[in-house]
Specification:
- This protein is α/β, with parallel strands linked by helices.
- The chain has 2 domains: about 325 residues, Thiamin diphosphate (ThDP)-binding fold, Pyr/PP domains (Rossmann fold, 3-Layer(aba) Sandwich); about 25 residues, no CATH class.
- The protein is built from 13 helices and 9 strands.
- A 7-stranded parallel β-sheet has the order 1-8-9-5-4-2-3, sandwiched between helices. Strands 6-7 form a two-stranded antiparallel sheet.
- The longest helix has 26 residues.
- The protein binds thiamine diphosphate.
- Thiamine diphosphate (TPP) binds next to β4 and β6.
Length: about 350
């Protein structure tokens, strides 16, 4: 019997748009000018949101916040290939993804202010709530994908997580199950190089995250996560494959966190200025702008218009958000069990909640 050894398996690296905005036409996915502009406008919108939410947290107007700067292309490029009916299983760094998936901006702000009502998905869009516990939702995504398969539906489930999550048992169990049952699931790893202060090299001895797919008999691909066209293409291929019943894919989007881990972190304590600045040059938004200028899809006036209209959308959402009354503290206790336990009643009394 011919033996296949590990070196026979290859992990492809995909880049289509380079840092200077030059595009590899042979690899370029089919996208109309309007579709490219739509992705650009969404990139700008979520970047404006990200900065605004960070500022609001610093001003004491938001409880906490997790920025995703540097990872916008991962979230917008992959969301662009999904149907509303597909499932997403996001992690805490996915506010941009949720916005691209029609989650009302007001609600995203509500969530980061500690109000769980913010995670109620809009009707007819299959967005799961954000997972704060690292990696636990990867299993849920496979469950949803498998259920869709058993029900004969054409839905695909996509789950988003960091490279740190790939060190958890949940990830491996999910990958194994998806492989064995050929679940229509896409595992989207946003490799931003750090799990808080732990660099990727200390997270795993594997050279890439994508190669972890090989052990489970599924396809793995590494893409430039700051290249929206590469992300779009890899996600599209993986989603189409899953929808056609041909099984799961692991996508490693190789990017960099151009921000702190969270609003309680200071990344300058564990990352050098030089490293950071080298990655700023690879930024997805600037790269796309350079490309669009070359193709006459963007000029200064259009750029300004997109920025201003994004700022207006975000400011309107902020005004609306700040008018929302806080939830009833009783809600913390009321919905855990069908009936409150004596201990819960005691805790409620202790907190002086009637
Ligand atoms: C189960 C669990 N363990 C530990 C934590 C604490 N924690 C929060 S974020 C984080 C790092 C995760 O890194 P990664 O998966 O690479 O995602 P990133 O934050 O870089 O996007 C850890 C350990 C947690 N939230 N959940």
């Amino acid at each position: 019997m011919p033996k296949k050894v590990l070196r026979d398996f290859k992990v492809e690296y995909l880049q289509i748009l380079d840092e200077n905005g030059n595009c590899d036409d042979a690899l370029m996915p089919k996208l109309s000018n309007e579709e490219i502009k739509k992705m650009y406008e969404m990139l700008v919108l979520v970047r404006v949101f990200d900065q605004k939410a960070f500022n609001m947290q610093r001003q004491g107007r938001l409880g906490t916040y997790i920025q995703f700067k540097g990872q916008e292309a991962c979230q917008i490029g992959s969301a662009a290939v999904l149907e509303d009916d597909d499932w997403i299983f996001p992690m805490y760094r996915n506010s941009g993804l949720l916005i691209a998936r029609k989650h009302p901006i007001v609600q995203v702000l509500q969530y980061w202010n500690g109000d769980e009502r913010g995670m109620r998905a809009p009707d007819n869009v299959n967005n799961f709530p954000i997972a704060i516990s690292v990696g636990t939702h990867v299993i849920h995504a496979v469950g949803a994908a498998w259920a869709a398969k058993l029900q004969g539906k054409k839905q695909v489930a996509v789950t988003y997580f960091g490279e740190g999550a790939t060190s958890k048992g949940d990830f491996h169990e999910a990958m194994n199950f998806a492989g064995v049952y050929s679940a229509p699931c896409v595992f989207f790893c946003e490799n931003n190089q750090f799990a808080i202060s732990v660099p990727r090299a200390k997270q795993t001895h594997a050279e890439t995250i994508a190669q972890k797919a090989i052990a489970y008999g599924i396809e793995g691909i590494q893409v430039d996560g700051m290249d929206i066209f590469a992300v779009y293409k890899a996600a599209k291929d993986a989603v189409e494959k899953a929808r056609a019943g041909k099984g799961p894919t692991l996508i490693e989007a190789y990017a960099y966190r151009l921000c702190d881990h969270s609003t309680s972190d200071d990344a300058s304590r564990y990352r050098s200025k030089e490293e950071f600045e080298a990655w700023v040059k690879k930024d997805s938004l600037e790269r796309l702008e350079k490309y669009m200028r070359k193709k006459n899809l963007l000029d200064d006036a259009y750029k300004q218009k997109v920025l201003e209209s994004s700022q207006q959308i975000i400011e309107k959402a902020v005004t609306e958000f700040e008018k929302i009354q806080p939830p009833d503290p009783k809600d913390m206790f009321k919905y855990v069990y069908a009936e409150m336990t004596p201990q819960q009643k005691e805790e409620m009394e202790e907190l002086g909640i009637k």
